[in-house]
Amino acid sequence: MNAIAKGPSWLHRKLSSHPFAGQPRDRRESLLNPRSIAGRVFLVEILIVVLLVAAAVTSVVLQAARDALQQGRRESVVAAQAFAQAPGVAEALSSPDPTMVLQPRAEAARKRAGVDFIVVMDTDGIRYTYPYPEEIGKKFVGTIQPSLEGRTTIEEAGGPPLPAGRGTAVQAVVPVTDAGGEVVGLVSAGITVRNVARLWMPQLPITLGAGGAALALAAGGTVLTTRRLQRETHGLGPAEITRMYEHHDAVLHAVREGVLITDADGRLLLANDEGKRLLSLSVGAEGRHVRELGLPVEITRMLASGEAVTDEVHVVEGRLLAVNKRPTFPHQAGGGSVVTLRDTTELTVVSGRAKAARWRLDLLYESGLRIGTKLDVVSTAQDLAQVAVPRFADVVTVDLLDAVLEGREPTAEKWRQLRRAAISGEQQALPLYPVDEKIPLSPATPQMRALERGLAVLEADLQQARGWQEQNPDRARGALELGVHSLVTVPLQARGVPLGVANFYRMGDSPAFEQEDLSFSEELAARAAVAIDNARRFTREHTMAVTLQRSLLPRGQPEQDALAVAWRYLPAEAGVGGDWFDLIALPGGRVALVMGDVVGHGLHAAATMGRLRTAVQNLSALDLPVDEALGYLDDLVVRMDNEESTGEATEAHEGQGVAGATCLYAIYDPIAGACTAARAGHPDLVVVHPDGTVTCADVPASPPLGLGGHPFETRELHLPEDSRLVLYTDGLVQDRTRDIDVGLTGLRRTLERAGARCTPEETCQAVVDAMVPRHPSDDIALLIARTRLFPPPGVAEWDVQPDPAAVASVRAHCREKLREWREEEIGFDTELIISELVTNAIRYGSPPIRVRLLHGRSLTCEVSDGSSVSPRLRRAATTDEGGRGLFLVAQHAQRWGTRYTSGGKVIWAEQPLGSGTSIAQVSTPAEVLLEQFDDPTL
C-alpha cells in the first residue's frame, strides 16, 4: 500500500509488462465484459446501486402507506366517536324508526368527515344507516363484541359496496351509550384502502425521482471507479491476473537469482527469497530504507543511488555477487529501481562442471575419430591407450586375450591370462608389464573383478587396494613409490563377450578417480571394444582369405631354363582380393606367364581366382595358343557368372557374382627368342631391354573376361637375351590417391633406375619399395622374368622324307647326337621313341616332317608334320598287328603330348636326364609290357 500511495504501483508495472497488457481493448466493451475485473466490478456495483435505490424507494413507499393507514384509522375513530356522542343519537336509537332520524344525519356527517361510510346499528349488528339504503337492515360486516363491552374496535374488513367502490376498508366501531352508560347501539366509520392510498400517492413521484437521481449518481461513480480499475488492470480477467500472480510468485521466489525492488526514496519494497539469502536480509527488511538494512557500504551506496549498474561485482559475506540495476520507469521521474544479484561463486562451480562435461564430450568425439581407423587389433588397442593420455589418465595399459590378438573367438576359460597389447604414458619410469608379455590374473585383482562383473572397477587409493598389490607385490611397490595412486579398470567387451581390460592410472599431482569417472571410462572402453572386435573379426577373415589365396598361388618355380623369375604378392590392408599369377613350364622349353585379377575382395574373390588359375593350368596342359586359351577362359567366367546369378547361389553369396576378371597370358619360346602375348582387360606388358630402355609391349587390348563372344588379339615380340618381362596388376599403379597414368610413369622410372644389371629379385624389391603405398587398398601382384635363349649346341634338327626307310637314318643321327651330348644311357629309349613318332608321322601324317631334339634339363624329342590329325593312345587287341606305338612312347618317356601349330602339329616326348637309368628300366621292360596284351585277364 505504501508503494501505491507513493507513486506508480509495482502491480501496475507488473500488469503493464504482462503479455495481455499490450493488447488494445475497446473501453466500452471491456467495461461491460463480464470476463474482465473492471466489467465484473461495474456490473456488481450497478446491481448493488439498483438494489439499494429500489430498497430505499420501497421503504419510503411502505412508510408512506403505513402513515396513511394510521391516518385513516384515526380519522375513522374520530368520525365514529363524534357521531356516537352527537346529541340525540342515543335517543334516536330508542325511537320507533331510528333509520329515518339517523340516516340523513349519518350521510351528512360522512361527507363532512371525509370518510367513506358511517353506519349506525343496534347491539345485534343490524344496520340503521348506510350510504346505500338497500343495505339498511342487514347484518354489519365486522367485529362488534369488543364495542358491546364498551371498547373501540379498529380493523380492516370487507363489506357491501360503497360510494368509493368495493374492497377492504379500515373501519372503527365505537359504542353508543345512554345516560346511564348502557350500550344501546354501535357506530362504525371507515375509509376504503383505495382512499387511504390517495393519502400517500402524491409522494410517490418525489420518492421515485429522488431514487432515480441517487441511482444516476451512484452509476456515474461506479463508471468512474471501474474505468480507473480498468486502466490499472488493463482489462484482464480474474483468471489471467491469478495466473499472472502465480507465475510471478513462482518465478520471483524460485529463480536462482536475487531480485530487489526499491522506490525513488531508496526504500526496499520487495525482495525475493534468493535476494534475502544472498544479502542475509532479516524478515522485516521490506518497507525499510536500504541504509537501515546493515549491508556493506558499497552495496548500500549502489542501492540508494539512482544510477544504472551492469555486472558490477561486490563481495558480500564471502560471495562474489554480480549486480545489475535498472530503473523501473526509465522515462519518468520519481520511479524506483530493480536490482538483480547473481552468485558467481556458484556459477563458477556450475561452469566448471559444464567445462568438464564438454571436455569429456570432446574426448569421446576425438576417440571416435582416432580409435578404429585401422583394422588391426594391436593398433586399435594402442589408439585407445594414446587417446586417453594425458587428458584422462597419466598411464593407460590395454590387456587382451590371446584369442583376440590372433583373430579367434574369445572364451571365458582364458580370462585368467591376458597379454599386454598396448601402453601409453610415462611407462618408462613405471615397473609395468611390457608389451606382448603374458599377465596372469588372480581372482582378487580389479581386472578379474571387472571381467566377472562386466563393469568398471574403481580403486581410488591404490595404497588400500590389496588385490592389486597381491597380484605382483614388487611391481606394485615400485609403482606406488613412483606416485601411482589411483586406478580404474574397465572390461573391454563386445556383443556380450569380454575381450580384455583397459587400465587407467593416475599418478603424481593428478586428482584421484571419482565415481563419475566410471561412466566416462566405460563409454570410452565400449567404443574401443567395438573397434577391437571389428579388428579381430577382420583379422580372422583376412587371415583366412590370405591363407586361402596364398595356398592357391604358386609355391615355387617350376623347373625350366627359359626364364629367371621373381615375384611379389601383397594383399590389401582391408582384405585380400582376386589378384593371381602363375608360371607354367610348357613342352619344348617354353614357359607360360599368367597374370590375372578378379573383380572384388574377400574369400569369394580368392576362391574364384583359384578356379581361374586351375583352368589356366589345364588349358596350358593342352598347349593351346594364347588367344584360344583366353577364349576358353572367357567362356568359363561367363558360366561362373551365370551360376552365381541363379538359384541358391545368389542367396549364398548375397549377389557377389564374378562380375568379370582380367588376364594377361604370354608364352615365351627360348629357342626362337619370341614372346606371344594376349590380354583381356589387363594392364599392358612392360619390357625392359638389355640396354635399360623401358617400353610397353603394346599388346592389343581386349575386353575383360566374362563379357563373352569377343575375340582376343595377340602380339608376338622378339626379345634379345636378358630382356625383362614385367607383369603386374592395377593395384601397383593405381589407388585412391594416384591415377593410373601417374602410376605407369612411376613404374617406368623405377625400372629405368633399377637398370639392366639388377637381378629379377632386386628389381622386384626396388619396384615394391618405390610403388607400393603404405596402406594398400588393393591387392598387388608383380612378376618379373629375365629371358634366356636356349643354347644352340643343345638343339638338333633334321628334315625327314616321307619314306619308312628314312627312319633308320633318323635313328643314326639321334644316336650320334646323344653320343655328342654324352647321353648314351638313354640312347635305346630315345631311338625307340624317335622310331615310333617318325613312323606314325610318315604313315598317318603329311609332309613336311621334321625331327627336333632339345638337350637341356631334360631331353625333348619333337616330331612335326603337316597334318592336324592328332594320334591317341589306345589299347590294341591281341589279334592287332599294330597300335602299340604310343603305348611304348608313354612307357619310355616321362611325359608326352601333342600341340598344334599353324602348319600342322607337333608330337613331343620328354625324358629325364642324369638318373642313369631309363624309365623303362626302372619299371618294366617293353617286352614284358607287350606280353601283357596277350594276357586274357587284362
UniProtKB/TrEMBL annotation:
Task: Give the record's keywords alphabetically.
Answer: ATP-binding, Cell membrane, Hydrolase, Kinase, Membrane, Nucleotide-binding, Phosphoprotein, Transferase, Transmembrane, Transmembrane helix, Two-component regulatory system
- In which domain of life is the source organism classified? Bacteria
Cross-referenced Pfam families: GAF_2, HATPase_c_2, sCache_3_2, SpoIIE
Subcellular location as annotated: Cell membrane
What the entry lists under SUPFAM superfamilies is as follows:
ATPase domain of HSP90 chaperone/DNA topoisomerase II/histidine kinase, GAF domain-like, PP2C-like, PYP-like sensor domain (PAS domain), Sensory domain-like
Q: Which residues form the PPM-type phosphatase domain?
A: 563-787
Q: Which InterPro entries match?
A: Bact_Sigma-Reg, GAF, GAF-like_dom_sf, HATPase_C_sf, HATPase_dom, PAS-like_dom_sf, PPM-type-like_dom_sf, PPM-type_phosphatase-like_dom
Q: What SMART domains does the entry give?
A: GAF, PP2C_SIG
Instruction: Please state the span of the N-terminal signal peptide per the UniProt entry.
Output: none
Entries under PANTHER family matching the protein: STAGE II SPORULATION PROTEIN E, STAGE II SPORULATION PROTEIN E-RELATED
Q: Which residues form the GAF domain?
A: 376-542
Q: How does it sit in the membrane?
A: Multi-pass membrane protein
GO MF terms held by the record: kinase activity
**Record-annotated membrane-spanning stretches:** 41-65, 204-224
Q: What is this protein called?
A: Histidine kinase
Question: Source organism lineage?
Answer: Bacteria, Bacillati, Actinomycetota, Actinomycetes, Kitasatosporales
